């Protein structure tokens, strides 16, 4: 996707888009890590069930989910900072084009990691609801959370599909225009060469006719005798 944008808008404009994208992603992930860090270091639920040395399964699930979200958020923050620092070291347009082409899957991967960190936080909220409330209340809370999540995911997916469809439309139009221009240039380049070859053929035919007339019955060489002998006779 990013390589297509680079071909459409230019590598320098794409570079600025990427820097804005990484900044937004890094700041948002930093906020998410600040949200999940207390849940990992000081969980709001009890570690053990009463009268047992075994950790409560809901407690384990809650801590693991928030720990996973925290790690993924930190990965996004670190990689965003690294990308922001490294892209400014690419000084030529040729190298920048190679950079975008080679690492564009990493750019998309950061978005996927960020999305997974959000999903783990949402899942931990559902786990917390089952820990704190009775079954009916927990199911209702989980239903509300899942409905909101699916609504946001559907809206994001629709927006992503629309933007990519429009991008593909513009790229297809640009390719079709380029093909038409190339075809017209080929026609114009072939036409003069065809005309010049026709003129050359006409010139050759005229020369052949002229040589044929000079060597014909009425020509100087048609009698088979020397012109001096004719004049003397």
Describe the structure.
The chain is mainly α and 233 residues long. It folds into 2 domains: 2-132; 135-189. Helices cover 84% and strands 0% of the residues. It contains 6 helices and no strands. It starts with a helix and ends with a helix. Residues 213-222 have a biased composition (Gly residues). This is PGG domain-containing protein. It comes from Chlamydomonas reinhardtii. Keywords: Membrane, Transmembrane, Transmembrane helix. Residues 209-233 are annotated as: Disordered.
What topology emerges from the helices and strands here?
Layout: H1 2-9, H2 11-41, H3 57-87, H4 93-132, H5 135-214, H6 227-232
Helix pairs in contact: 1-2, 2-3, 2-4, 3-4, 4-5
As residue ranges, the low-confidence spans are 214-233
Distance between the amino and carboxyl termini: 96 Å
Q: Helix segment count?
A: 6
What's the total count of β strands? 0
Oligomer: single chain
Please write the string of helix (H) and strand (E) elements. Answer: HHHHHH
Strand content: under 5%
Keywords: Membrane, Transmembrane, Transmembrane helix
Transmembrane segments: 21-40, 60-84, 105-131, 137-161
Protein name: PGG domain-containing protein
Region (Disordered): 209-233
């Amino acid at each position: 996707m990013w390589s297509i944008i680079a071909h459409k808008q230019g590598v320098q404009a794409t570079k600025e888009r990427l820097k804005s994208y990484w900044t937004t992603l890094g700041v948002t992930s930093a906020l998410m890590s600040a949200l999940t860090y207390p849940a990992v270091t000081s969980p709001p639920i009890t570690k053990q069930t009463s009268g047992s040395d075994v950790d409560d399964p809901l407690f384990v699930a809650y801590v693991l989910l928030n720990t996973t979200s925290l790690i993924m958020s930190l990965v996004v923050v670190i990689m965003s900072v690294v990308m922001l620092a490294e892209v400014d070291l690419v000084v030529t347009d040729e190298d920048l084009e190679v950079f975008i082409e080679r690492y564009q899957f990493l750019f998309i991967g950061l978005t996927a990691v960020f999305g997974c960190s959000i999903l783990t936080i949402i899942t931990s909220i559902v786990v917390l609801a089952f820990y704190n409330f009775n079954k009916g209340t927990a199911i209702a809370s989980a239903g509300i959370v899942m409905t909101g999540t699916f609504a946001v995911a559907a809206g994001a997916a629709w927006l992503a599909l629309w933007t990519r469809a429009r991008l593909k439309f513009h790229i297809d139009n640009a390719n079709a225009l380029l093909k038409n221009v190339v075809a017209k240039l080929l026609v114009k380049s072939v036409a003069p060469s065809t005309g010049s070859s026709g003129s050359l053929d006409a010139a050759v035919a005229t020369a052949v006719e002229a040589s044929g007339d000079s060597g014909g019955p009425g020509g100087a060489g048609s009698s088979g005798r020397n012109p001096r002998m004719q004049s003397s006779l």
